[in-house]
């Protein structure tokens, strides 16, 4: 298709080039500047109303002791108390550690599996397109629905997962519980998240692999570089910017993770899988500590935003090389 | 056809050997089969009877029944066999099915209203987001807007907030405005989330349409708006459709806002499905039936979107 449209474009480009020199610059109707603002304003207005105004409100609330279950109390400003409370709270640090471990393990596994799959699919075997679509399905599903149906699959007695494991290892299926055991639950959320999102990394890596021009490999062949050598000095370095992009997106998404884990383990057993978003939800919508949770929300936002900015800078550096 | 083409090109050095292809294909198919098993299990569970669904050990071969689907759409009450024997004969197949379990249908369940909510909120927010997004994307693509990069970054950054964090002030604001648990409230919220994706994706699509087409139209005496409507939009149709499907999928799948900000009137499917309860806990065949019905459109969309998937999931950062 592109081959057809290209000469076409060139002809039109040439035509308008000659036409432009003759035509007056003025265009009928609204001026371009008016149209530009008219078109951008509604979006900005909506985002100001639904995102920015509430955010500013939340910043204000984070300096108060507002508790919605006792909202009859007058609004009392407590300065930075909420922030010092949170940063001095050992529990919050534990939740952040749990979250960090979840992010690191799930993203690492997704990168390994996703990149591996992309390398295999890039060999363009027969039917690769069909199987790729099958592999992509999990990431399109609703995380909440995924979390919910995995609880059935992982039930120690009635679920098929434990039976499959026992088929291969001989461990009796009802002797362990993937969601109910302190030692296994953190791995369970990593497992389900990887099942869901490894295809995401795969898809981005595949684009990276396809962006490498053939002539580089041809040159390497001429130089008699081994396949191993080609992988380390061509394939990997040229895919790294794509990999980093995938890692950025996945890390941000998993740092925010709420839905899937909330339905799979709801933070349990105890608080072994209580990610920071779940803590936030409990503080805000179960204990109704609005002032406190506003402060926590701001801390989280600043963390994501700061980390993402540093990462994007690194990403750009890699791209420039 | 592509196979023939790749064979005839001069790049045969880079082509994988037939054996390497077979090995790669085998591994990928193995992964695909393993990854699809959980979904197949759920689809199968929807056709199990209550006792087969919670059988120990789990059943792979079973007598299929539509009980799960019937349970999903109805509310039933348990009756004595004597009472059921006295009733007039069942009028429909599902009445009959339910009576075999000593139950009588008492009325429709809430699943249809929830499904309708999902549809209204999904399509409403998609339409608004794509409409606003197209306008903004066109402006960003074609005109010089002061601080354009900063504005675009601002539009994107609104997506970096954890949804639970966003929900806190929205909850307070909606309480003041009487928008809690309303479809309008959810449509506005989802529009705000989707519009950032729409602007970024559509800007990419519109950037790819050569300016020369419009400029030729302007020279011919079209106004900007006419040129947009008659020249740019027809060429951007594929991109707009792909963007719309991405927005629809987001709204369809969204859970955090829905569970925190709705409780009845405006509740969508994701917070509803886990709470389909039977006698003694989750009614798994009904839950599986709801999950299946909920997931089918997503599977269709994935196939439709296949070519544009990469763009959608990276906010247009990676294009093919």
Order of helices and strands of chain A: HHHHHHHHHHHHH
Amino-to-carboxy terminus distance of chain A: 32 Å
Bulk shape of chain B: globular
For the largest interface in this structure, which chains are involved and how many residues does each contribute? Answer: A-B, 106 and 110 residues
Can you tell me about this structure?
The complex is a heterodimer of chains A (321) and B (320). By secondary structure, chain A is mainly alpha-helical. Chain A is 74% helix and 0% strand. Chain A contains 13 helices and no strands. Chain A has helices at 2-22, 32-61, 81-88, 90-121, 128-140, 143-153, 160-169, 185-210, 214-222, 227-255, 259-264, 276-285, 290-320. In chain A, helix 3 packs across helix 13 (290-320). The radius of gyration of chain A is 26 Å and the shape is globular. Chain B has 320 residues and is mainly alpha-helical. Helices cover 68% and strands 3% of the residues of chain B. Chain B contains 16 helices and 2 strands. Chain B has a two-stranded antiparallel sheet. Mean pLDDT of chain B is 88; it is low at 1-12. The chains are: A mainly alpha (321), B mainly alpha (320). The interface between A and B is large, with 106 and 110 residues.
């Amino acid at each position: 298709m592109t081959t057809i449209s290209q000469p076409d474009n060139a002809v039109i480009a040439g035509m308008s080039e000659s036409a432009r020199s003759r035509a007056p610059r003025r265009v009928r109707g609204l001026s371009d500047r008016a149209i530009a603002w008219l078109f951008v304003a509604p979006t900005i207005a909506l985002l100001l109303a639904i995102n920015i105004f509430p955010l500013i409100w939340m910043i204000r609330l984070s300096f108060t002791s507002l508790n919605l279950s006792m909202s009859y109390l007058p609004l009392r400003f407590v300065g930075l108390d909420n922030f010092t409370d949170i940063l001095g709270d050992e529990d919050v640090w534990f939740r952040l550690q749990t979250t960090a471990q979840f992010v690191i393990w799930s993203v690492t596994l997704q990168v390994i599996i996703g990149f591996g799959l992309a390398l295999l699919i890039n060999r363009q075997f027969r039917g690769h397109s069909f199987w790729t679509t099958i592999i992509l399905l999990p990431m399109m599903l609703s995380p909440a629905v995924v979390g919910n149906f995995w609880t059935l699959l992982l039930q120690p007695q009635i679920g098929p997962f434990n039976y499959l494991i026992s088929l291969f290892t001989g461990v009796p299926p009802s002797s362990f519980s993937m969601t109910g055991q302190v030692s296994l639950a953190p791995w369970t959320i990593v497992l389900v998240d990887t099942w869901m999102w490894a295809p995401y990394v795969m898809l981005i890596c595949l684009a990276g692999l396809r962006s490498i021009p053939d002539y580089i490999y041809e040159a390497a062949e001429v130089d008699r570089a081994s396949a191993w050598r080609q992988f380390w000095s061509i394939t990997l370095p040229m895919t790294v910017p794509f990999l980093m992009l995938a890692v950025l997106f996945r890390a941000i998404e998993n740092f925010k993770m709420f839905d899937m884990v909330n339905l799979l383990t709801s933070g349990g057993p105890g608080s072994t899988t209580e990610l920071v978003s779940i803590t936030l939800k409990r503080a805000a919508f179960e204990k109704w500590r609005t002032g406190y949770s506003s402060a926590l929300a701001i801390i989280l936002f600043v963390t994501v935003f700061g980390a993402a900015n540093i990462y994007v800078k690194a990403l750009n550096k890699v791209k420039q090389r | 056809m592509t196979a023939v083409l790749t064979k005839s090109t001069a790049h045969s050095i880079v082509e994988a050997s037939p054996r390497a292809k077979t090995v790669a294909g085998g591994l990928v198919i193995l992964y695909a089969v393993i990854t699809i098993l959980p979904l197949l299990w759920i689809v199968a569970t929807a056709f199990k009877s209550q006792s087969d669904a919670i059988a120990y050990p789990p059943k792979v071969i079973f007598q299929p029944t539509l009980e799960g689907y019937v349970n999903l759409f109805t509310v039933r009450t348990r009756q004595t066999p004597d009472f059921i024997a006295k009733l007039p004969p069942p009028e429909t197949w599902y009445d009959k099915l339910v009576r075999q379990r000593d139950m009588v249908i008492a009325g429709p369940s809430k699943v249809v209203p929830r499904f309708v909510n999902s549809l209204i909120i999904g399509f409403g927010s998609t339409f608004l987001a794509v409409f606003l997004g197209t306008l903004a994307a066109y402006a960003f693509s074609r005109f010089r807007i002061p601080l354009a990069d900063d504005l675009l970054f601002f539009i994107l950054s609104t997506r970096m907030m954890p949804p639970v964090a966003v929900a806190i002030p929205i909850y307070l604001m909606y309480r003041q405005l009487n928008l809690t648990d309303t479809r309008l409230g959810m449509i506005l919220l989802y529009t705000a989330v989707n519009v950032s994706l729409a602007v970024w994706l559509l800007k990419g699509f519109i950037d790819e349409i050569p300016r020369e087409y419009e400029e030729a139209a302007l020279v011919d005496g079209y106004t900007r708006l006419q040129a947009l409507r008659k020249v740019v939009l027809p060429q951007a149709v594929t991109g707009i459709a792909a963007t719309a499907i991405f927005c629809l999928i987001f709204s369809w799948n969204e859970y955090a806002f829905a569970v925190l900000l709705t409780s009845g009137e405006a509740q969508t499917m994701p917070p509803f499905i886990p709470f389909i309860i039977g006698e003694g806990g989750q009614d798994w065949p009904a839950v599986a039936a709801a999950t299946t019905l909920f997931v089918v459109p997503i599977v269709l969309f994935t196939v439709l979107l296949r070519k544009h998937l990469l763009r959608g999931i990276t906010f247009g950062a990676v294009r093919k």
